[in-house]
Amino acid sequence: MESKVSEGGLNVTLTIRLLMHGKEVGSIIGKKGETVKKMREESGARINISEGNCPERIVTITGPTDAIFKAFAMIAYKFEEDINNSMSNSTATSKPPVTLRLVVPASQCGSLIGKGGSKIKEIRESTGAQVQVAGDMLPNSTERAVTISGTPDAIIQCVKQICVVMLESPPKGATIPYRPKPASTPVIFAGGQAYTIQGQYAIPHPDQLTKLHQLAMQQTPFTPLGQTTPAFPGEKLPLHSSEEAQNLMGQSSGLDASPPASTHELTIPNDLIGCIIGRQGTKINEIRQMSGAQIKIANATEGSSERQITITGTPANISLAQYLINARLTSEVTGMGAL
Questions:
Q1: What is this structure's pTM?
Q2: Burial of residue 249 (number of CB atoms within 10 Å: 0-12, 13-18, 19+)
Q3: How would you classify residue 20: left for phi > 0, otherwise alpha for psi between -120 and 50, otherwise beta?
Q4: Helix, strand or coil for residue 178?
């Protein structure tokens, strides 16, 4: 991270992620995208809004710290304007505070809270903003929500202090970012068919990801969610409990203490292997570290357009490794960018 001192002291490039509801996102985008365009131009920060027709969206703000603070100021004042407009049409007498939710890697939350809560208390007292760090991580990620509420000025001061903490204590280890979109549900492959989990059923995967399904077609069908036989196309698989769904993600202790190690194979086209390996092997190492599975990628064979990936570990390790590989492929196939 390049650091150069500006008149304000701190001037480095930083990325801050915000979690917003659909209505808040609509307010930031504005009619025909005019509001967000103005925010980008006036702040100098890059402001990206995640795709998806889901209740929550991620707003990513990147740029030098002073540009980020300007962007935050514009967002906070826009939200206050929305509150004032809604107040004029309502009988409520007390004005609610402006509230923003940051998404922060869990490994940085300890520094933000401080020993015995000392840091977060200091931020609250010096800025006048309310700051709450969620106790649990956001689903399928290693990030937590940090909720800030108060006047726009208090929020801007609070964001500045949080940025300083985040720069002084970079994230440790790999971060699995929170993605609030329906496509982030685990993908299961069985009997030559791709399934996603929705509610209590595993349902056939939407058509736009059939390419992904073809890429990751397994040679040995993986038995989904504790079922004893592989499913066949079109068959609904009842989920007996949420614990089994968590087992698929490798996040539950409901599995046997030491289930036998097994091996699982995937075939990936050569032109997509790069997105799984990453620069100098960074992505594949992250996937190994997060899943706990051993992952071997076979060397390219002459005349073949595909590469073999062998995953070895417990069923939970394999499931998580598969999920992470699928997430990398999904981002590549649908053009959502790096995980």
A1: 0.53
A2: middle
A3: beta
A4: coil
116 with 153: CB under 8 angstroms? no
Contact assessment for residue 292 and residue 322, using Cβ atoms and an 8 Å cutoff: no
Q: Which residues contact 106 (CB under 8 A, 6 or more apart)?
A: 137, 142, 143, 144
Longest pairwise C-alpha distance within the chain:
74
Give the three-state DSSP class for 297: strand
pLDDT tens track for 272-290: 888 888 888 888 888 888 8
Residues 329, 288, 107: CA angle, nearest 5 degrees: 95
Reported as a pLDDT band with limits 50, 70 and 90, residue 196 is low
Distance of alpha carbon 205 from alpha carbon 82, whole angstroms: 39
Q: Please list the residues that pair with 218 across neighbouring strands.
A: 266
54 and 180 Cβ atoms separated by less than 8 Å: yes
**Single-letter amino acid code for the residue at 240:** H
Query: Tokens representing 314?
Result: 């417990």
Q: How far apart are CA 183 and CA 240, in angstroms?
A: 22
Q: State the residue for tokens 């937590």.
A: 144
SS3 21: strand
